[in-house]
Write a structure and sequence with these properties.
Shape: globular
Number of helices: 4
Order of helices and strands: HHHH
Helix content: over 70%
Low-confidence stretches: none
Length: 142
Amino acid sequence: MLPAGDAPVVIRFVWQCFKFACVGSAASLVHALCALLLLKLGQAPLLANAGAFVVAFFVSYLGHDRWSFRGNGVPGRVTIQRFLIVSLSGLCLSEGMVYLLTESVGIRPEWAVLSAIVLVAAYSFVLSRTWVFWGRPVSSAP
């Protein structure tokens, strides 16, 4: 049982996790739809995926900046650079994990990808909360 004073902190944390998941899901959907569209238009798979990643990056960044971690007091020029670092390192972590799990451990690719998605989502949330958008909260009062 939580002490009464801790309940609002836990509720805010759960709400922030929910918002992070919503934005991440929306960005993933945008990534998939953009990639499929680019493939249908004849783009090479790697270029289609890279182009879709860029579009999804901005959807994700704007959603997290304006909703998931709103009011953090950190300038946008700082957060976007940090977010890019976390996004690209997450992509590398995901690729490395899928490679290791499929090639070294022998796990089916589907399970390797799902495992990587869960790990990278947690990694991204922790770094977004503790570094990318970490700052002094801005008061919503006028």
